[in-house]
């Protein structure tokens, strides 16, 4: 190996070490001290008073997470109720619900990222979060059930490939919960819809949409409508 090649090799090795160290710092940046005593100092509250409300970091984090999930659910439910009051069809109701989710997320970006961003190391969410998330899912399932009763839900599509064994297991797990009674094809598509639309919300909340979309509201409305059709809701002529 020539001296020039050796210098290049050494330089590459140093660059890799520096990048690895930088990544460790980025990972550490996500570690936040939420010990009630530390938070009390920031809030100008006596530590003993804080401890009576939140005895430890887990209790405080759980209060934040459950509160945020319920706030998203409140926004989704309010949007759903307004759409029903306005006489919206199932697809319009579906879009309104997701707009409610998006609007809350854009107004509360840090809380949204807390819910659907990087998991907090060592933290296990309490059972109350399941109930709160169930409220969000429930607004969407109500639309699907109403559409199914009205014959306005495409259940099975001949052009779709059969579900794999793994997807059948996923569908079976969801079908015994809040999606019970819905067709397996609709339940399977729910996986795609849920992740796709939360991905769109996260993309905007993390400021990745500003450089490509002049009007992000219309982008999301288009995506929510497209995902509503994908899951099986019918679009009326002229919509």
Write up this protein.
The protein has 239 residues and is mainly alpha-helical. It has helices at residues 3-29, 36-43, 47-53, 57-85, 90-107, 109-116, 128-149, 165-175, 184-205, 216-231. It is 70% helix and 0% strand. Helix 4 runs antiparallel to helix 5 (90-107), helix 5 packs across helix 6 and helix 5 packs parallel to helix 9 (184-205). The model has no long low-confidence stretch (mean pLDDT 88).
Describe the protein's topology:
Layout: H1 3-29, H2 36-43, H3 47-53, H4 57-85, H5 90-107, H6 109-116, H7 128-149, H8 165-175, H9 184-205, H10 216-231
Overall mean confidence score, pLDDT: 88
Strand tally is 0
Q: What share of residues is helical?
A: over 70%
Number of helix segments? 10
Shape: globular
- Cα-atom radius of gyration: 23 Å
Strand content: under 5%
Q: N-to-C SSE series?
A: HHHHHHHHHH
Could you give the distance between the termini? 68 Å
Low-confidence stretches: none
Largest beta-sheet details: none
What is the structural class? mainly alpha
């Amino acid at each position: 190996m020539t001296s020039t090649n050796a210098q290049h090799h050494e330089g590459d090795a140093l660059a890799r070490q520096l990048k690895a160290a930088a990544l460790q710092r980025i990972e550490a940046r996500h570690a936040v001290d939420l010990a009630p005593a530390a938070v009390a100092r920031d809030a100008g509250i006596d530590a003993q008073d804080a401890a009576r409300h939140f005895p430890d970091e887990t209790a405080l984090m759980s209060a934040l997470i459950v509160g945020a999930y319920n706030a998203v659910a409140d926004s989704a439910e309010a949007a759903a109720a307004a759409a029903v009051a306005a006489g919206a069809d199932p697809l319009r109701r579906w879009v309104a619900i997701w707009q409610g989710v998006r609007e809350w997320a854009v107004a509360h970006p840090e809380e949204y990222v807390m819910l659907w961003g990087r998991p907090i190391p060592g933290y296990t969410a309490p059972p109350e979060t399941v109930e709160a998330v169930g409220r969000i899912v429930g607004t969407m399932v109500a639309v699907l059930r109403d559409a199914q009763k009205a014959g306005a839900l495409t259940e099975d599509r001949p052009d779709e490939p059969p579900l794999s064994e793994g997807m059948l297991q996923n569908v079976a797990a969801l079908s015994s919960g809040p999606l019970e009674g819905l067709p397996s094809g609709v339940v399977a598509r729910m996986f795609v819809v849920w992740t796709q639309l939360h991905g769109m919300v996260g993309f905007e909340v993390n400021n990745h949409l500003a450089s490509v979309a002049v009007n992000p509201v219309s982008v999301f409305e288009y995506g929510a409508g497209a995902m509503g059709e994908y899951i099986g809701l019918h679009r009326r002529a002229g919509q």
